[in-house]
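As a warm-up, study this chain.
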Amino acid sequence: MNLTVGVREAADIMKVHPKTVLDLIAEGAMPAAKIGRSWVLLTADVLGLVEHQIAFQTAARLRSAPRRERQQRLLTLSGGSPVFDSQTTATPRRPK
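Now compare it with the structure written out below.
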């Protein structure tokens, strides 16, 4: 992978329209330099922005989920599957 990309390549990496990349540059959310007529972005910066957004939005979804549902998701994400006690269906526990 190249160290630098243009607006179109950044848009391809991010799976967005090139106009969205230009908007992010204009807002200062995406570091870039205009060299001649072209915008130049570091590939690491593009991937870093995507990684940050994934982490931020995932955390927001987990925070907004009800507690029981959040516990089940965390168990599933950690490799376990949610298993419930035989006495109650409201208390998830990890399998032994």
